[in-house]
């Protein structure tokens, strides 16, 4: 799995990040459970080592880490995220994703290259999907010009960048650009990877909650171009 993006990126100086990372590493390390860590690493297909902190406990610890820290700007968010991505254990990357989600309104369109680095560095669905729907999606919704970047991402050779483009409108509901959504699905309808085919079905299934007729009509016309997995996922809640 690629590790070059976040390692090659320049991490901006941030006193906020200094404070957060000092607290974070000491707090998480003290809660590590090696036995549970081994099980978590195996469940996540050995994508990264783990500390062994379950999600509810991790989130509680994270709240204690950020309590009383200044509200971050984009520079601080960038520093926190990139520094977390340089740490080996996966829980630090989970912290970074949660931090970006919490402070997403403070991120400008200029953060998109950083988001791409995070998506393509130590990539797996556990971080990519949250970044796609809650970080990249927010950036694109706030700046419509970034839709052109998504048009480029859907053509990318990196399957995780492609998956991000497919999923970035996941939370848009009635604000979804259906034409772009369907075009992206068609563009990658023949993709050989499970994670892209699954994402096609997922984004269509999610949009079907807003306009089931449009999804049915789309698949009635184009369903033969998709893998059975994609079609099953898309129609899971609305039927053929």
Describe the overall structure.
The chain is mostly helical. Helices cover 65% and strands 0% of the residues. It contains 14 helices and no strands. Helix 2 packs antiparallel against helix 4, helix 2 runs parallel beside helix 5 and helix 8 crosses helix 10. The longest helix is centred in the middle third of the chain and has 18 residues, at 125-142. The chain starts with a helix and ends in a 6-residue tail after the last helix. The model is unreliable at 1-5 (pLDDT under 50).
Summarize the structure.
65% of the residues lie in helices and 0% in strands. The protein has helices at 4-8, 15-30, 34-43, 55-66, 74-86, 90-102, 112-120, 125-142, 147-153, 159-167, 178-187, 194-208, 212-222, 228-234.
Secondary structure class reads mainly alpha
Query: With helices defined by DSSP (H or I, 4 residues minimum), what is the helix count?
Result: 14
* End-to-end separation: 37 Å
Number of strands: 0
Whole-number radius of gyration?
19 Å
Instruction: Report the major sheet.
Output: none
Instruction: Tell me what portion of residues adopts beta-strand conformation.
Output: under 5%
Given the C-alpha coordinates, what overall shape results? globular
Low-confidence stretches: 1-5
> Strand-and-helix sequence, N→C?
HHHHHHHHHHHHHH
Oligomer designation: single chain
Q: What integer is the average pLDDT?
A: 95
Fraction in helix: 55-70%
